[in-house]
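Look over this record before class:
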Amino acid sequence: MSALVEVSDVHVVHRARGGGLLRRDRVYALTGASLAVAPGETVGVVGESGCGKSTLAKVLVGVERPAAGTVSFRGRDLWAMPAGERRATVGRSAGMVFQDPSTALNRRLPVRRILRDPLDVHGHGGAAGRDARVRELMALVGLPPALADALPGSLSGGQRQRVAIARALALEPGLVVADEPTSALDVSVRAQILNLLLDLKERLGLALVFVSHDIRTVRRMSDRVITMYLGRIVEEAPAGLVADRARHPYTRALFSAAPGLLAPVEAIPLSGPVPSATRPPSGCPFRTRCWKADELCGTVMPDFCHASGTEHRFRCHHPVQEDESTRDLAAQIRLREPR
């Protein structure tokens, strides 16, 4: 199946805050990221804070322009298009749901205006048709018609996020990118929003990219899972394999730390802090915390390897064996630790 959106060897570099007027450090937010999303599939993205998840999300919807590499919608290079065509393509092809609906919505506009704005900007139908579309969008996400004239400040957190989801769907995109869509919500409404996203994905045939720290939820919602570390994609695996058959040491460690995901096991210990994105390590970026690292890991970034017979790829010189249990792995590593 051809990709709906595809990023190829994308690099994103930011200027760090501070550092004086003459010198500002570069932050390597994404390095060599490649990913294709097919129509109708759900791709989960996991990793520690600062690993590049949100930057990848912004690249996918055309908010962030890469310093190098290509972003293609249905085979066409997004950043080679004229500006007007690019805005129209992104507006009609992709929608984004941000982490905090209280800051993502204009607090001075009523719900009706928030949902109608994308329709007005892109000239979607006539006036009567746009009003009808607003009513349709509210019904789609479970908002009562009486809230059409309400301001965001008068809504609950869950209702605000429903408005944000409805706005992302206004122009009937094929792709929705949800960047930590439940982390700012009360625990009691998180499941409702997640179930709504899954329901809309099935009903509308959406491709969904779901970015989250909650790796249990990512695994449950996704067809495949991307693991990121220090701006790089280090593993991509079918969701059913990622918890206990991941091949990259970092993915194994990450999922071992999720309570209740696997049979009770001790988390795989990782020593040392995450390296700085302004001065990433040479070779494999995970080598400074990896129990398998050797001289080769310090000098050469590994290429992707593919597990036989699956859409499972990983970047590691010394991958974990597929049949090696996480429980046994954690026990072996702890035995090596100095007492």
In short: Residues 243-336 form one domain.
